[in-house]
From TrEMBL:
Subcellular localization: Cell membrane
UniProt entry tagged with the keyword Membrane: yes
Source organism: Lysobacter arenosi
Cited Gene3D superfamilies: 1.10.3730.20
Transmembrane portions of the chain: 9-28, 40-57, 73-93, 105-122, 129-146, 152-168, 180-198, 210-234, 246-266, 272-291
InterPro entries named in the record: EamA_dom, EmrE-like, RarD
Superkingdom of the source species: Bacteria
Location (main, coarse): membrane
Tagged with keyword Transport: yes
Protein name: EamA family transporter RarD
Coiled-coil ranges per UniProt: none
Key words of the record: Cell membrane, Membrane, Transmembrane, Transmembrane helix, Transport
Limits of the EamA domain: 10-145
């Protein structure tokens, strides 16, 4: 495959992954009859089976041993698995509790939180434009806190947990899908035990009370969890990260529109003001990133 065709294919796969993530609230809404904790446990169990099968098919049965042999991989992937499970749980609960708009806010501000973590933990440096973006986003969050009497805890929880997850995955040198596989192995048994406990104590109704349609949707959670992650891993190897970084806003934009237009959540002038600060911050951040990437490309070509 030519480089041009490879990049074009990566762009389509990345776009499909982000659109799928953005449409997730519609899927979780179909599962409102199922408690959020059980949705997450089903998501873990079925995605673990799917990802493990994929890795055995692609890399053979030694994939787990080879991945765990990496330095610090064992304990760091256990921690990242815990963080992503928390993120999934909070997100599913928030969507089905009527907080889709606030959930989208979490994924809008997540890139800026990741930038701050880079400064604090990796000693990265920000230029003045990036600091301006961070300050504007912080102003937006402060405005929302002042207007509603408390911080937007759902958005903050989603942004912090996913940014910490990204930080850990950056520090451990493991392929994206392999890392997801190890995380799934760690989470599989606890999730399965929780589901067995709910079934034996009368609060779970898989294959007995929710109906075949709901059961099928729960099983398909595994596909919806693994497929976009695998697609994302495919895309980032073929598409410049600066482009992928801009494309990631597809998902929270779709989530936001679903929250307002489909689920009818309140989006008044006060909330819009806070969001505008954050959107302006993201626009400045994205444009600065594109300009720096372009300058770096021109400099490399000249050299």
């Amino acid at each position: 495959m030519s480089d041009h065709a490879s990049v074009r294919g990566g762009l389509w796969v990345a776009a499909a992954s982000f659109v799928l993530w953005g449409l997730m609230p519609l899927y979780w809404h179909l599962l409102k009859v199922v408690p959020s904790l059980q949705i997450v446990m089903h998501r873990i169990v079925w995605s673990a089976l799917l990802v493990a099968a994929w890795l055995v098919w692609k890399q053979g049965r030694g994939w787990l041993r080879a991945t765990m042999a990496r330095p610090r991989a064992a304990w760091m992937l256990a921690l990242s698995g815990t963080l992503i499970a928390f993120n999934w749980g909070l997100y599913v609960w928030a969507v089905n509790a009527g907080h889709v708009v606030e959930s989208s806010l979490g994924y809008f501000i997540n890139p800026l939180v990741s930038v701050l973590f880079g400064v604090v933990f990796l000693h990265e440096r920000l230029n003045r434009v990036q600091w301006l973006s961070v300050a504007l986003a912080a102003t937006g969050v402060a405005w929302l806190t002042w207007q509603y009497g408390q911080p937007p805890w759902i958005a903050i929880g989603l942004a912090l947990s996913f940014a910490l997850y990204g930080l850990i995955r950056k520090l451990v040198a493991v392929d994206s899908v392999n890392g997801l596989g190890v995380e799934s192995v760690y989470l599989f048994l606890p999730a399965l035990l929780v589901l067995l406990w709910t079934e034996t104590h009368g609060t779970g109704h898989f294959a007995s009370g929710w109906g075949l349609g709901v059961d099928a949707l729960l099983v398909f959670c595994g596909v919806l969890t693994a497929l976009p992650l695998i697609g994302f891993a495919y895309a980032v190897r073929r598409v410049p990260l600066s482009v992928v970084g801009l494309m990631q806003y597809i998902a929270p934009t779709i989530q936001f529109l679903l929250g307002v237009l489909v689920f009818g959540e309140v989006f008044d002038r006060d909330r819009a003001t806070g969001f505008i600060f954050i959107w302006v911050a993201l626009a400045i951040f994205a444009i600065d990133g594109l300009l720096r990437a372009r300058r770096a490309t021109l400099a490399a070509a000249a050299a």
